[in-house]
Amino acid sequence: MKHKLFFHFPGMFFIPLFCLFSCGKSTRNSAFDQLDVVAELDVVAEKVMVHNSELIACDLTKLKDTVEIPLSYLVEDLQMIRLDNRNEALVGNSSSIVTDKHVLIRNNRQNPYKLFNTKGEFITTIGSYGQGPHEYLNVYDDWLDEETAQIFILPWQSNQLLRFDLQGNALEPIPLKYTAPKGKFCVNNKESTLSVFLLPFAGSPVVAWTQDFNGNMIDSIPAGHLAVQPDFSNEVLSNKNTREFDCSLFTFFEQRPDSLYHYNMVGNSLDPKFTLDFKDRAWKIHSYQELPRHFIGDVTVEKKLSDNITITEHPSNFIVDKKTLKGGFYKLYNDFLAGLPVEGWPSFHNGYYVWNVDPGELAEHLTKHLDKSKTLIEKDRKKLTDLLESIDENDNNYLFYGKLRQN
Amino acid sequence: MKRLLLLIIPLCLLFTACRNRKHHTEVLSEAARLSDSIPSQALMKLEEIKNVKRLSTAEQAEYDLILIKSMLRSGNKLSSDSIIHATTQYYLNHNDSAGLHQALYYNGLYHYRNARHDSAVLYFDKAVKSIPAGNDNDRKAGYKRAAGYSCLYLGDAEAAVKTQTEGLQYARAANDSLSVIHSLLSLAEAYKYNKNTGQSLETYRQVLDLIREREDRDMEASILNIVSGVYESDNRIEDALHYKNKSQQVKRNRQEVPAVNLYRALLFDKLDMHDSARHYAQLSIKGDNQYVADLAYAFLSKSEAKQGRYADALNLSKNSERIFNSFLSGIHSADMQQKYEKEKLENENNRLKIKQREHQFYLLMSAFLLLLMLIVLYFIRVNNRRKNEKTAHENRMIRLQHENLLLKQQQEISVLREKEAILRESLFKKISFFHKLPSWNREEHNHHEQQKIKITPHDWQELINGIRDAYPEFLDKLKQHAPTLSDDDVRFCCLLKINVNMQDLADIYCVSKAAVTKRKYRIKTEKFQIADNSLNLDTVLQQMQ
């Protein structure tokens, strides 16, 4: 069920040529210099010191060029897992966590969390849908800790962090000091502390706090100017792709200057690390994410469906290199799969790129790509065709994942 | 030329008619082909024929038949059956069995769709009868199947069985396994409604055998599901479950897994195997199908309540409600999304229409402005022409006036010259010298013999004075033009000036006329230095005033 897709990309042939011409100034592996498409872009940001924190401020007006970035630029390699096909293991296209040994697929309403190993074999369901003990409705954040072999689940509007072992047995939940309407968390098992960054409704005393596993407060950060209107149009974002607890607020209606922070638990501060400066342009819906070597984000345009329903369309994705401060808009394509376009919002979480896809959908993507692409070389076309032929629409979902490049 | 035109025009018309006919034939052929597979596209194809009334009767009947077929097969409603009747009548009148049976069939289908099943049965049977014996058994089987379903709608299951059996015979005669399968399925269903479960199941088994020969796993799984349903309706739950499981083994559809699990749960519940029922119900929840999950929660809640576990029942009931509300809001979102997409399309459509109208408007405006410009230019041109004509006329008038004036002036000058001449003559006549000249005095010297004229110095002086009086600038001009003129030459020139004739000159100078001529010539060439032979001295002197 596991297929390893090697680091195939058409540019391998040109490595020697590129090596001849490279300036050799990058500290990165020279084999990937040719992939550094961002290096061709202009400098779009500057480093600014804000309360002893180095903030990268990106100037929106300088983001002009659009580059096509291969997935291999961000991801080391791509693995493919065909998840266990038994009826009890069927999953939807839910958010997924990948660790060294496990794959955890988030619940889809009544369809509970399901745990697999990295071969795709189904292990167990985790918890169940409901409001009873150890049950959850909508989940906002989760975490699989290999060290302590525990799964942590934080539902919406929750005053406790649910815990399970890797056999699906419920453990004693951790009571939260404050109810989190929406929250992201970070568990420090060594020190038995839990840090939470939540969506601070107006009137909320804190935006982040650290506590012990008994619910006792250690330290907290007041909400202050970060408070938002008390509705669920906003989000809390955290990717945990680095060692830091990165967190940011995504506001839908209230457009305002904001930053991606590192929650400094030791110093009890939110250190701003990245911001997008709109200069004199109107603020648009935007969000930030942190990767090991880059900050990425998007600027979206909203469309109003009705008085109460608004959707977003046409996100423009941008990327900024943390070291060179070069950046621009980008489109991502999966060069491990012969240039298959990466659509929607790709998942970069916990140090991995993950794509959990229904086989029927995958077949559709592949077919469309094979039909539309006129530049596929024979080898790539064959690879995709073989993959397409191996797909059974009645299979369980397939999972593609790869570790994010750290340097 | 006229004859040529009379020949060419009919040829062109004939050619156009032939082309149109060929085009119509092609369109009808293509539409007929599409009506079997994509009836909606067939309808679009038929729209290429702009004027249906121009078709021949046969083509029109074909057009109508394709239209009826495509409308019914694409789910569109025919406003009335008049077109079907007309088409049927045409084929009947023309003994066209191929067209007739189709028209009759679609007539039946029209009534079937409008829930007039007795008429539907009638027309389906007529359709079968109108196909010649031994021909097209496959089609007859199809018509019989449709008639059989109409019988079921009429509640006459026995007639349905009979009709389907006949249909099966036709299908077997056609030697088409797929047709046989469909006929068997229809017959099995008719048996079921006729409460003949045994026969129904036996017939389904025959279908399964045929399907297995074709190795069609999808259809096999589908039939096994149907068989499960038949067993269930006959209260043979264990068999129903058996066939349901078999269906899943043959071909599992992952989308149906939650529903299948729930169905199993219900079957187990009917078998009073509540643990198994609960197990499968819980399994059915752990899928992505909210609708099934809602039903499963409701089922489990009832099950728990029956067991007296009211708290669990309540929780399950709440979950059911949550799921239900969740998919209601999902439906609402989907509905809003659909409305948005529809509005977006409509807006886009309207925007395109507005753009089109704008283009048309700009075109019209441009055309109007162009026309206006042309009109203005025309008027300007006309105006300019009028002005030019007026100016030309005025100029002509002025010119004429000038000419008139000139003429008048010339006239006046002539008169004045005449007067001048007369006055000169009068003046000269007063001078005694002139009396000596015969050419001046015709009355006094009216005798034949010319005598020598004796001119005294006083006479010469009188002449000079007279000349000076009559022609004040003559003498100066003489000196100017011919400064080498002697006095005698001057006197000679004066004589010439007053038109003394050759005889008188000869008499004055006592020379011959030839000598006078020579003298004139000499003075002209030597003194005046005029080489032009066409010009004589008399003329030169007369022109000097």
Write up this protein.
By secondary structure, chain A is mainly beta. Chain A is built from 3 helices and 31 strands. In chain A, strands 2-3-23-22-21-20 form a 6-stranded mixed β-sheet, with no helix packed on it. In chain A, strands 4, 24, 25, 26, 27 and 28 form a 6-stranded mixed β-sheet that branches. In chain A, β27 and β28 form a beta hairpin. Chain A is globular and about 60 Å long. Chain A starts with a strand and ends with a strand. The model of chain A is unreliable at 1-33 (pLDDT under 50). Chain B is mostly helical. Chain A binds chain B through residues 87-88, 90-92, 108-112, 125, 129-132, 137, 303, 305-306, 309, 311, 393-396, and chain B through 251-254, 257, 261, 283, 285-288, 290, 293, 297, 315, 318-319, 322-323, 326, 333, 336-337, 339-340.
Report the major sheet of chain A.
6 strands, mixed
Give the count of helical stretches of chain A.
3
Q: Look at the structure and give the mean pLDDT of chain B.
A: 88
Distance between the termini of chain B: 74 Å
Q: What kind of oligomer do you see? A: heterodimer
Q: How many runs of DSSP E, i.e. beta strands of chain B?
A: 0
Overall strand count of chain A = 31
- The helical percent of chain A reads under 10%
Question: Uncertain runs of chain A with pLDDT below 50, 5 residues or more?
Answer: 1-33
Instruction: Provide the low-confidence segments of chain B as ranges.
Output: none
Q: Indicate the structural class of chain B.
A: mainly alpha
The fold-level CATH name of chain A is Methylamine Dehydrogenase, Chain H
Tally of individual helices of chain B: 23
Largest beta sheet of chain A: what is the strand line-up? 2-3-23-22-21-20
